[in-house]
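anyone else get weird line breaks when pasting these?? whatever heres mine. first is seq + tokens for prot A
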Amino acid sequence: MPFINFRETYVQFGKSHYEENNIIMHMICTPLILWGVIGFASLTGPLVPTPDWLAPFIQFSPEGTFDLSLGAFIMLFYFLYSLALDFIYAFLFFPILICILTTTHYLIQTTPDAPHYFYLAFICGAFLNHVGHYFIEKRRPRVYEGDFFTVFFAYFYVTYTFLMHLGYRTEFYQELRQEINQSIQSSSSSKPDPATPSHPSKTTTPKN
């Protein structure tokens, strides 16, 4: 199950995100997409009132706060999933989740054009990710193969890869890259050669 087996999910996702330049592009654009999604989800406004005991903990500055909107609950789910993956990773990237919530909430509170910013962030991020897939990776996104879990997993792939790229769990990272490379080679070798006919050609025997 993809929610449980991180290694298997990472390797499968990495098959269409193997080229370094494509990974770099996704590291920039995937959080941008998530920012746009959370912005739209936060437009629901508070789904439940903020408890008095919680208010001081989510007030990071006079403007840096958020309410308990749909976006906040999505971010809570992301954080809990991060904890299940890796305790250290979850706390290292927790500030990014908070930054997404506070900046989107600030825009909603200060400008009526906030939905336009969320839309532009989502469209630009998605467009550039597709450029990376089709022109750098030369592979289409996995979501077009029916793997819709990748829409959720993309953020974890790029952020965890970024952390490992900086030296976190180096041996584990090398193992994952080797598995991805082997999986790509295995998939390539299993595809039929287009130059080879799929059926043996019929030969005619000359008549005597």
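and prot B, same format (seq, then tokens)
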Amino acid sequence: MELHEIHPHLKLDNTKNQLVNTNTNEIIKLEPRLVELLQHLIEGQGNVVPREILIKAIWGDYNSGDQLLTHSISILRKAIGYNLIKTVPKHGYLIEKPSKKFTPRVKWRISNLQLVGYVLLLTFVIKVLFFSHH
């Protein structure tokens, strides 16, 4: 397994096409091209990686490479959950070097079982409040 550090507690496992949060053991699967894109950004960590280089490396001479790059960066930003990928207008993108002052964005997650519980509780409360006066 080859892990590339993106930030403290966030690693890219390019052999399995996934991100690993070593704090929570959360695994996020990525498409191979997104992994390749993220690898290019990690290799240039702390430096701007020009859009043209990223497009050529990932999509070759494909005409829609610019739109695909923009869309792929958006997907990576959502997957990472951190504001790590910076846009440098008219130049490219960069991932900042890891720092000790790092606060992950909290993601609210709810399981299906919890959701069912909340719906049942809400149904009960509505029934008691509105139908118990009869």
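btw re prot B: The first helix runs from residue 32 to 43. Residues 3-103 form a domain with the Arc Repressor Mutant, subunit A fold (CATH 1.10.10.10).
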